[in-house]
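Might I ask for a little of your time on a matter of protein folding? Here, with my thanks, is the record as I have it:
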Amino acid sequence: MLKLTSAAGTEGCHGTEAVLVEQCATTLAGVKPASLFRYQGADKRQPREAAARWAKELAPYGITIRVLKYCPQTGACLIYLYRAGWLRSEPSTRAFLAGQGYGADQSCQELLRQLSRRLCLEREFPHEIGVFLGYPLEDVVGFIRNRGRNYTCCGYWKAYGDPEAAQKRFDQYRRCTAACCEQFRKGTAITQLIAA
């Protein structure tokens, strides 16, 4: 089994674990509750094997990994990494998800199963996914209502509220990702990048 070690001795931020750091630094560092990325390996088995390995090794740190979508033709996976217990049952979020067809009393795992089904089976992309990534609810609702237009600021997502606040958050995410990638390149193990 490969351990979540650093990329010391390699040029740049390359390799399977480097992809995880680059795509999920903000979640690993505790700045953002969840991350989602597409991963396609050298062969069809590699993405699922990597996700299973990451899930096992990160679970003791309160981080859960789930494959939300798998393409059998290419082997590509849509991998969701999140901090266990972050999806709170806030009434506004629950009401929004209920309005999108999710059960009002579903557990986090049930919500993720339904999101996975929607990603795999529905023609339209489920834009409520922003809630699952920790985006502000007003931005998720704004995106759906405006069909992706009329946003006030664009960065990691399209914001529909205060553009200065959104830009500060985007800048924080960029700084966090750059710092984690740099630490990883210098030899820091992924598990040492995880915030308590």
